[in-house]
Design a protein that fits this description.
Blueprint: E1 7-10, H1 13-16, E2 25-30, H2 77-80, H3 82-97, E3 101-110, H4 116-126, E4 129-137, E5 146-147, H5 148-154, H6 158-163, E6 168-169, E7 176-183, H7 190-197, E8 217-218, H8 236-246, E9 252-255, H9 262-269, E10 273-278, H10 281-294
Parallel strand pairs: 1-10, 2-3, 2-9, 4-8, 9-10
Antiparallel strand pairs: 3-7, 4-7, 5-6
Helix pairs in contact: 3-4, 8-9
């Protein structure tokens, strides 16, 4: 296991997960691809509908969600099959992950509100059980809705534009992201499993928020001067929080879609071991660079201080 442990490995996790020993991993935590077309790496289907891969006038020139949104010319049958293909993709790695997790081990996946249910079903089919749905409330959100009156005015439909004034096309501002908390079932009692595998309980004492027990809504933002290098990046403090909640020092954390390396940084800050895979060479190089340069700068600050900003 020396080839993977405490390293970020460039490559497809599907090629490497089978090489991890059974019952080896204490925690799985990953900001997996959402399958919503955020960018090329997030298109996980065979749909060739050019409208889906295009942009509406409201999206042109905007950095977020380069390939996002309802097809310009309307949905077709292939578009409706996107979520099924996403579930099939999730099933491939979920079936490989299950045997390498210890009994009682937690699994956290970040996901999109429209597709996370498919990832959950794939993980359930692989053998995991759903414990809870957590909410990460973000400090801000991209609001992508378009005023319909503008569209109608472009069509010279003045009367209709006045009728639909104040109405928008799209969604409400997405201020939160769901986190599915799953776990691998255990054969013995929960207490026996905790004694044997040292996982399965929650370290509430180390995860108080303002002196109170935590809830399933987490409001942990980016720290001052925390570098942002990935459009889907999560705060180091948020990942640290979930790691502290479910593991003890020197246990192994797996992130097979490690992106810009946030999970690796959090593990090193908290004295946990990690295994990380990244298929995109650009993000792999960025993750390695961040791990080398930011670990000390973003050293874990105890919750009694003002570490979460």
């Amino acid at each position: 296991m020396d080839e993977f442990l405490d390293k970020i490995t460039l490559g497809d996790c599907l090629d490497h997960l089978p090489r991890i020993p059974p019952n080896f991993v204490h925690l799985f935590i990953s900001d997996i691809p959402y399958g919503i077309g955020l960018d090329d790496w997030d298109v996980l289907h065979n749909n060739t509908n050019s409208a889906y891969l295009g942009q509406s006038p409201a999206q042109v020139g905007k950095g977020a969600f380069k390939r996002r949104g309802k097809p310009i010319n309307g949905w077709n049958a292939a578009d409706r099959n996107i979520v099924r293909e996403y579930q099939e993709w999730c099933s491939k790695w979920a079936q490989m992950v299950y045997p390498i997790m210890k009994d009682g081990a937690s699994l956290f996946i970040f996901g999109a509100r429209r597709t996370i249910h498919r990832a959950i079903v794939a993980l359930e089919d692989a053998g995991f059980l759903l414990r809870d749905m957590l909410i990460w409330k973000k400090p801000s959100a991209h609001h992508r809705s378009q005023r319909i009156e503008i569209v109608l005015n472009r069509r010279s439909e003045r009367d209709l534009a006045e009728k639909w004034k104040g109405w928008r096309i799209g969604n409400l501002a997405p201020i939160y992201e769901p986190i599915a908390w799953m776990f691998k079932p255990y054969e013995k009692t929960i207490t026996d499993n905790i004694i044997e595998n040292e996982i399965g309980a929650m370290n509430i004492g180390a995860c108080l928020i303002d002196g109170k027990n935590p809830t399933n809504i987490l409001e942990i933002g980016f720290r001052t001067h925390e570098e942002r290098s990935h459009e889907a990046q999560k705060p180091v403090g948020l990942i640290e929080y979930l790691i502290r909640l479910t593991t003890i020092e020197n246990q192994v954390v797996l992130d097979p879609f490690i992106g810009s390396g946030t999970t690796a940084i959090a593990c090193r800050n908290l004295n946990r071991k990690f295994i990380g895979f990244e298929i995109n060479e650009k993000y792999y190089r960025e993750a390695v660079r961040r791990l080398e340069s930011e670990t000390r700068q973003l050293r874990f600050i105890h919750e009694s201080s003002k570490g979460y900003e």
